[in-house]
Predict the 3D structure of the following.
Amino acid sequence: MTEKARKELDALDLLMQDHREMESLFSEFEYLRQNGRNTGRVIANACAELKIHDTLETEIFYPAVGKAAEDEEIDGLMDEAEEEHDTILELIEKLEQTRTDHKQRDAYFTILAGHVKHHVLGEETERFPVVKKLKRLDLDSVTAAMKKRKAELMAETGIAEADEETV
Ligand SMILES: [Fe+2]
C-alpha cells in the first residue's frame, strides 16, 4: 500500500482491514488443521492481532462512538460489541492456557473464530453504518489516535504491519 493510500484510510477502514486480516488467518488455520499441520503459529498471530484490535476498539473507538451516540440519543450502540469483546478475551485466555493440548487449543480457536466472525458481521452490517452517520463523532481525531496506538501496540508485540510483511 502506498503512503498516500494509507493516509486516506479512516478509523472504520482500519478496523475493517483488521477484520479481513482475521478472516485470512482463520482460513489459514482451517487449511492447516484439515491437513493435520501445526496451527500454533497462526493461532498465536491471530490472538496477538485480536488483542491489538480489542485494545484499539475498547480504549479509543467505542468510547468515542459511545459519547457521540449518547449526545445524539442513540441508545447502547456499542453495548453488544463490548460484550462480544469480553467473550473473545475470555476465550483467548482459555486458549493460552491450553498450549500443550493441541486438540483442545484448536477446538477453542474454532469457537473463538466463530465469535469473531459474528462480531465482524455485527460491526460491519449494523454498527459501522450507524457510526458513519454520527454527526458529533470526530472521525479524524479517532483515526489519528488509533493509528498512533496501533503503532505502539505493534511495536510492543513485535508484529510488522501486514503490508510490510515479507512472508
Ligand atoms: Fe472489530
About this structure: The chain has one domain: 7-157.
